[in-house]
Amino acid sequence: MGALEKRKLKSGISWRFVYRDAAGRQKKVKIGVTSKRVAEQRKAQLEAMLAMGKDPADELRTHGAITLSELMDTDAAWAANRLQPRTVQLNREIMNRFIAWAGDVQLKQIDKAKVEKYLKYCAEERRYKATTINMHRRQLASIFQRAIGEHGLVKTNPFHGIKPFTDSVRRDRADYLELDQVDTLLKVTAEDVPFQQLVRFYLLTGARRGEALDLLWSDVDLNRRILYLGQERSQTKLRRDFPIRDKLHALLIELQKDREDHAEVFWRFAGRNSYVSNRVGALKKRDASLPDSLSPHLLRHTFASHMVMQGVDLRTVASLLGHSTEKVTELYAHLAEEHREKALDRLPY
Q1: H-helix or E-strand containing 19?
Q2: For the chain, what is the domain count?
Q3: What H or E segment, with its residue span, contains residue 3?
Q4: Alpha helices, DSSP H, located in the chain
Q5: Which of 47, 50, 132, 323 is within CB 3.0–4.6 Å of 318 for a Cys-Cys bond?
Q6: Do 44 and 53 meet the contact criterion of CB atoms below 8 Å apart?
Q7: What 3-state DSSP class applies to 247?
Q8: Which helix (H) or strand (E) holds 240?
Q9: Nearest to 33 by CA among 79, 93, 89, 85
Q10: Containing domain of residue 248, as a range?
Q11: Helices 246-257 and 193-205 sit at what angle, rounded to 10 degrees?
Q12: Buried b vs exposed e over 104-122: b needs ≥16 C-beta within 10 Å?
């Protein structure tokens, strides 16, 4: 009926379905960069079209004939050696939630109106926060964009032009933990030493969640006292030197004793076990003064906020946080002004 043709590209193995139409003319249908298993599944579908007297090239001319679950499998196979395992798993989880809502429909049935309805459903019925909704939007948009460029499955991205969700109340200041809340957090996590060590790392470095969990011992130079944060496969693609001062040095020595044969610094934390937010309920039972929302990003804000309140200039804070521009760091500018005002209050006359 037909055969698979493969080509070796820099991005991986690209597959095509080769067949002859009713007139005996040879034709090819692009399957894209994917695994052999997925390519064979696609071949079976195309051969089924031929068996029904349909020309696959004509059927696919409008694109989008495959289903959401097939796109998920195709994209996961492509991403396996290109994206972090956590990102691949996150994409699967988000796509599965989308499929649970929309059904396992063909890609051509997903349009901008349907996307808007899904995001509205996430906000009004699932009660997701704006940051969570925007994460879903970004990940799904990236998958559909790869369906165009990498997999050749659709011509348009239904997520194109969808604006990010915003909180009902605009936030122009960062939330952070006060010093007494930091002390409380460290106190209530004392019984779970590995978790407290992760929390301390966030507080001492302002690292992003991915930067902490992807950190390898090869990125730690205890002799020169330099930490290399941000890997090539991270979201920002930036890598920066972070000074290891005494408290951070002591923490890394503790972690090194628990290293065993693992390459990862925080090898105990993988998958959902790494989510700080999952522990909020248990922590609040121990001390109600802790905030209702606790995350690595809140700890990152805490690090930056207290640096600014100690008089550190925004340019230095931006460098330590790994911000590509100082504009992002302006979120903490009001703290710098408050610090200046308090400094004036200390005048003895």
Answers
A1: strand 12-20
A2: 3
A3: strand 2-9
A4: 36-51, 56-59, 68-79, 85-102, 112-124, 130-149, 179-188, 193-205, 209-213, 246-257, 280-286, 296-309, 314-321, 326-329, 333-345
A5: 323
A6: no
A7: helix
A8: strand 240-243
A9: 79
A10: 179-345
A11: 150
A12: eeebbebeeeebeebbeeb
- If we measure between CA atoms, which residue out of 20, 108, 12, 89 comes closest to residue 56? 20
Q: Of 129, 149, 169, which residue sits at a domain end?
A: 149
**Residue 243 phi, psi dihedral angles, 5° rounding:** -65, 140
The one-letter amino acid code at 141 reads A
Neighbours of 322 (CB within 10 A): 19
Q: Residue 298 domain-assigned?
A: yes
Asked whether the predicted pLDDT for residue 233 surpasses 50, the reply is no
Predicted pLDDT at 170: 45
Contact (CB, 8 A) for 205 and 303: yes
Between residues 2 and 270, which one has the greater pLDDT?
Answer: 2
Strands 220-221 and 226-229: antiparallel
Report residue 192 as tokens: 């779970």
- What is the rounded distance in angstroms from the CA atom of residue 264 to the CA atom of residue 215? 6
143 with 275, same domain: the answer is no
Range of 22-26, 104-108, 179-183 with top mean pLDDT = 179-183
Q: What percent of the chain has pLDDT over 70?
A: 85
